[in-house]
Every structure is written in structure tokens, then in C-alpha cells.
UniProtKB/TrEMBL annotation:
This is Methionine aminopeptidase. InterPro entries: Creatinase/aminopeptidase-like, Pept_M24, Pept_M24_MAP, Pept_M24A_MAP1. Residues 11-239 form the Peptidase M24 domain. A divalent metal cation 2 binds at residues 105, 168, 201, 232. It comes from the Bacteria. Its cofactor is Co(2+); Zn(2+); Mn(2+); Fe(2+). One of its GO terms (cellular component) is cytosol.
Length: 250
């Protein structure tokens, strides 16, 4: 069922989003060769607890960690681990914050040290694709408008769009209807309405779009070993256009 959020619920989700932004800004300072994603996981758990919040994905369907940390060819749902990040890696940190029942969800791909030019382009195109998708998140538009805009741009830049994982509604739980694909046809799909809250989170690959699953039954990675990047925001559909609750530049 698709729920449209009240003003009070949106205010709660915005407060959660503000905290998530603070958390990502602290993580950005930590990302450098030699750090482990397990250290980042520990930091996030302590940071949220200190601010009266919890990592919503920990325990969700049995997921054991506070963050997802996906390195290089991992598309999403990578497990934090004790291996040190090295110069040239890229790592996506995905966090869902629950602050007094309000949820916010945002992923960000970070370069580790110095990355090559293709890697830089992959990150730039993926982030731009996110905002191109957000521009289409207007009341009265259809879900296909978002995916079409992202796919057209990303493929036009020579990259591919993951099909197996999508954005989604959020609140009161992590994954609510509707699904928000990052590919598709314009003027197709559910019509967006004021008060809906969704995530837009394109996962863009430098090679093929297909994925394969690790033996942990969580982590998806590219089939050809190409790198994958992801940027994600939580978006409120309003009469005045999309409101980003997790905007880091606000």
C-alpha cells in the first residue's frame, strides 16, 4: 500500500535526514587509504546512538550491520569488513536512519585517495543521474519519467543502469511501495502524488548492467568485475516540486 505522509510525518523524516547528512559528512572525513569499512560501521552505530537514533537496516530481514559498504564491483548490500581500503578504490556507504520513528535513506559513493579518470567519470555521471531523476519527481509525473531520464543520460555517457535493484517508498518501514526503477519509458507507471516519500538511488556500472549474488545472499556485484557507483536521496513529493530530505549541500 502506498501511503502519503502528513506534515508531521514529513517533519520527522526531515529531522532524520538532517542527522543522516551529518553522519555522511563525518564519514567523508574518514575515507582514506588504510581505513576499514568495519571501522566506519562501528562509527555510524556509535554516532547514531549518541544522537538518539538507530540504524534501521540492522536486523532488517536479518541484515547484521549498521551500514552497507560496497567496494568497487559490489553494486549494493556489501558487508562491512576488516580489509583496508586502498588508494584507487571506490566505496558506497548506504545508511538508513530511524530518529523517533522518522526514516531517512541515503547512499554516497566515495573515492579512496586518487582514482583514475574513468572512476571519476563514473562517480560524476552517477551523481548527475540522481539529480536528473529527482527533477522528474514532480506531482503529476509518472514513475517512468524518473527512470527514463536517468537511463537516457547514463547510457548516453557510456555507462549502464542496474535493473535488479530500485528506489522505493519509505516510511513507516525501510521498503514501501512503490518501486522506483532507474530505467524505463516516459509517461508510464504510477502517477506521483503530493505527500509521497520515495528514494531515488541509481546504481550505475562501467560495464554490463547485470548483477550476480555473493554466497552471503545479500551482496550484489557486477557480472564482469566492472565498478559500480550509487548515489541516493530521500525525496518528498510536494506541490512545489521535490524536497530532498538528505541534501548534503543544504
Amino acid at each position: 500500500m502506498i501511503t502519503r505522509k502528513s506534515k508531521r510525518e514529513i517533519e520527522m523524516m526531515q529531522k532524520s535526514g538532517d542527522l543522516l547528512v551529518q553522519c555522511h559528512k563525518e564519514i567523508a572525513k574518514m575515507i582514506k587509504p588504510g581505513i576499514t569499512t568495519m571501522e566506519i560501521d562501528t562509527f555510524v552505530e556509535k554516532f547514531l546512538a549518541r544522537h538518539g537514533a538507530t540504524p534501521e537496516q540492522k536486523g532488517f530481514n536479518g541484515y547484521p550491520y549498521a551500514i552497507c559498504a560496497s567496494v568497487n564491483d559490489e553494486i549494493c548490500h556489501g558487508f562491512p569488513r576488516d580489509d583496508k581500503l586502498v588508494d584507487g578504490d571506490i566505496v558506497t556507504i548506504d545508511i538508513v536512519v530511524n530518529l523517533n520513528g522518522g526514516l531517512a535513506d541515503s547512499a554516497w559513493t566515495y573515492p579512496v585517495g586518487n582514482i583514475d579518470q574513468v572512476g571519476k567519470r563514473l562517480l560524476d555521471v552517477t551523481k548527475t543521474a540522481l539529480y536528473i531523476g529527482i527533477e522528474q519527481a514532480q506531482a503529476g509525473n509518472r514513475i517512468g519519467d524518473i527512470g527514463h531520464a536517468i537511463q537516457t543520460y547514463a547510457e548516453g555517457e557510456g555507462f549502464s543502469v542496474v535493473r535488479d535493484f530500485t528506489g522505493h517508498g519509505i516510511g513507516p518501514t525501510i521498503h514501501e511501495d512503490p518501486h522506483i526503477p532507474h530505467f524505463g519509458l516516459p509517461n508510464k507507471g504510477l502517477r506521483l502524488k503530493e505527500g509521497m516519500v520515495v528514494t531515488i538511488e541509481p546504481m550505475i556500472n562501467e560495464g554490463a548492467w547485470q548483477s550476480k549474488m555473493d554466497s552471503n545472499n545479500w551482496t550484489a556485484r557486477t557480472v564482469d568485475g566492472g565498478r559500480s557507483a550509487q548515489y541516493e536521496h530521500t525525496i518528498v513529493i510536494t506541490k512545489d516540486g521535490p524536497l530532498i530530505t538528505t541534501e548534503q549541500d543544504a
